[in-house]
Amino acid sequence: MIRFDDVDVTFGEHHAVRGLDLEIREGEFFTLLGPSGCGKTTALRSLAGFIQPSRGRIFIGDRDVTNVASEKRGVGMVFQNYALFPSMNVRENIAFGLAVRKTPKAEQRRLVDEVAERTGLASAQLDKNVAELSGGQQQRVAIARALVLTPKILLLDEPLSNLDAKLRVQLREQLKQLQHEVGVTTVYVTHDQEEALTLSDRIAVLDAGELQQVGTPEEIYDRSATSFVCRFIGESNRLTPTVLRRLRESAATSGAAFDLPLLAEDAESYVRPEKVSVTVDAPVSGAARGTLSVDGTVEGRTYHGSHSVYTVAVDDAKLRVSVPGTAAAKRWEPGTRVTLGMDPRWVLQYPGS
Ligand code: ATP
């Protein structure tokens, strides 16, 4: 449906996007994710036709749109600040593009009513001035204004970032639901990894203008392709050479298949906090068959309602371990000796930089 073919975007000397190759499927909710300045907005804007790539081609369907004007690409865009017209009421804002297209008035009315219902805007709100609406409602108006033109592609640039945390989570779910119902191919830009994981069918992670990985949320999180992705998404514990040596020793006794080149000096190894189990009074010989283990001492605990996070000292390293709510009731006090266990499948390893 959408293809970036070796796209470069430069601003003077600055390379904002480098050699971007990307394919986005029809109907997909696709997210461009990365830290501030990684080039995600630039990639989105070049798809929208606001920016011209300095190299490469962009395709929508079979059509090469690299030199096609924005309004002829069949894309609808929602901006972070909504960019609504303050002098118009909600209905006029939503109908704006229809009016430009000279759609008959009665048809405009019908289409606006339909899209308003779909996006969760009550009919009483349609006559209000946009300034009277809450941030969440303004965001709905911006989406309705884009959708009413039945774009082939919906582009969203951090549409939730101006909202408070609770509303953001609520709207996230509604947005996902809406996209599912409408079925429009959606490209979403965010720096918020949780938003990306919860909303997307697939995610592209960018760093410094370069694509790091494309995959489903599960692939990005559990099978991070680079150490950048591993560190950027969620939390991860870097395993020190000492911890790695101990884990390898435990593999010898438990029979775990641990054939990673673990002691390579410059390799980076990580494990996510919830992939580590905690037991007390484990046999000295290590954890269950097939797992890796290492002994440590509890240093502290923070309570998060659904789970607790323990900091466990293992020689020169401190590992953060996430334990679900029910097990948290055990409350291991500081000083408790524990055994940390992990399945070798969840140890992520990258060549050193
Ligand atoms: P943010 O979330 O902060 O917008 P981003 O990942 O979307 O970050 P971009 O906005 O795509 O990043 O910007 C990528 C790089 O290109 C940044 O270093 C930015 O300063 C630069 N840049 C973006 N637009 C322009 C422009 N019009 N002129 C010059 N430099 C630009």
From TrEMBL:
Keywords: ATP-binding, Nucleotide-binding, Transport. Residues 2-233 form the ABC transporter domain. Transmembrane segments: none annotated. Gene3D superfamilies: P-loop containing nucleotide triphosphate hydrolases. InterPro entries: AAA+_ATPase (IPR003593), ABC_SmlMolc_Importer (IPR050093), ABC_transporter-like_ATP-bd (IPR003439), ABC_transporter-like_CS (IPR017871), Mo/tungstate-bd_C_term_dom (IPR008995), P-loop_NTPase (IPR027417), Transp-assoc_OB_typ2 (IPR013611). GO terms for molecular function: ATP binding. It comes from Microbacterium pullorum. This is ABC transporter ATP-binding protein.
